[in-house]
Specification:
- Helix content is 44%, strand content 16%.
- It is α/β, with parallel strands linked by helices and 153 residues long.
- The chain has a single domain (3-152), classed as Rossmann fold.
- It has a 6-stranded mixed beta sheet, with helices on both faces.
- Helix 3 links the parallel strand 4 and strand 5.
- It is globular and about 45 Å long.
- It starts with a strand and ends with a helix.
């Protein structure tokens, strides 16, 4: 059976809510992974794994446990870069689907921006998460979930 894996450390609450409601409604096993305890919907389909507080512990756990046919929600591009070649569907909390066609460019851009931040040349972060981003995630998530559910039947 397909699983949904959520890199939940920095995942917006609105995205966690969308995932939880869909998992419960569609009876899809969903695992939230974080380094701190999270308040989650009570459902037999939703579970939580707490990992160590070390950097990238949630990413490592998901990378080791996600399988072909699973859906992973993460904003961590290096994790997506590991999962996409394994034919695991990866979606960002803003609705971007990471694919073999775009992951190389995304990891290059991420590395460039990291280098710029490390050298102090740029500041700031992503745009605030709002209704537009929530809608884009919900739409992409529904498409991916529907496609994977049909494929698994």
């Amino acid at each position: 059976m397909m699983k949904i894996w959520v890199d939940a450390d920095a995942c917006p609450v609105a995205v966690k809510d969308i995932i939880s409601r869909a998992a419960h409604r569609k009876s899809v096993e969903t695992v939230f992974v974080a380094n701190k305890v999270l308040p989650l919907m009570l459902s037999p389909f939703i579970s939580f794994v707490q990992v160590d507080a070390e950097p990238d512990a949630a990413d490592k756990y998901i990378g080791e446990n996600a399988l072909v046919g699973d859906l992973v929600i993460t904003q961590d591009i290096p994790l997506a870069h590991i999962l996409v070649p394994k034919n695991i569907v990866v979606l960002s909390p803003r609705g971007l689907v990471f694919t073999p066609d775009n992951i190389g460019e995304r990891i290059s851009m991420r590395n460039l921006m990291q280098d710029l931040r490390d050298s102090g040349e740029t500041t700031g972060g992503p745009k605030p998460f709002g209704d537009k981003e929530r809608r884009e995630f919900a739409s992409s998530f529904d498409r991916a979930l529907t496609k994977l559910t049909i494929t698994k039947q």
